[in-house]
């Protein structure tokens, strides 16, 4: 079963994970917000791979792309306008947005092409913000071990920080900044964590880069 069909079929399980792991979820939101706070106010942006709107809603993002119809249905209920399309082929004109957010790159078919598309739709000096599980840290390794028992992560591909840095540079981005959260294994995280700058300790890393 492909990724889109998986998300269509197991959207209830997807939502339940966030309810069962509120400290992990809120820690990720805090790390993302820390990068968003560095941007000017009242910017126009999108999330690519909105899912059910779990990240777009608290970050104030009102528009995005989500190919899973069942996921999109819940995102619309959360007040998010969903456009039909994929990360690798965005249905927007050149230089449309001030920022683009990704939080699901592990499920994309072609990350480099998705970054190129993000670069295309961003205005000059626009920002791309990417939240991802670092391949070299404990949570991604845990999901790798449980891959065959997971509806979602059996199709996932995790990336190292070095790989993401190279892809961003190759697709026309500069001034890459990082922060991180999720320190420790998932089952040990029982309170919301404050993000730290950089990477190398936390499993969830947020990269922010600027269009050249």
TrEMBL record:
One example of the protein's molecular function in GO is:
S-adenosylmethionine-dependent methyltransferase activity
Q: Which UniProt keywords apply?
A: Methyltransferase, Transferase
In the UniProt record, does the keyword Transferase occur? yes
Q: Which residues form the Methyltransferase type domain?
A: 47-130
Q: Enumerate the Pfam families for this protein.
A: Methyltransf_11 (PF08241)
- UniProt KW Zinc keyword: no
Q: Provide the coiled-coil residue spans.
A: none
- Output the GO biological process annotations, alphabetical, semicolon-separated: methylation
What PANTHER family does its record include?
A: METHYLTRANSFERASE (PTHR42912), METHYLTRANSFERASE DOMAIN-CONTAINING PROTEIN (PTHR42912:SF80)
Name of the molecule in the record: Methyltransferase type 11
Q: Which organism is it from?
A: Arenibacter algicola
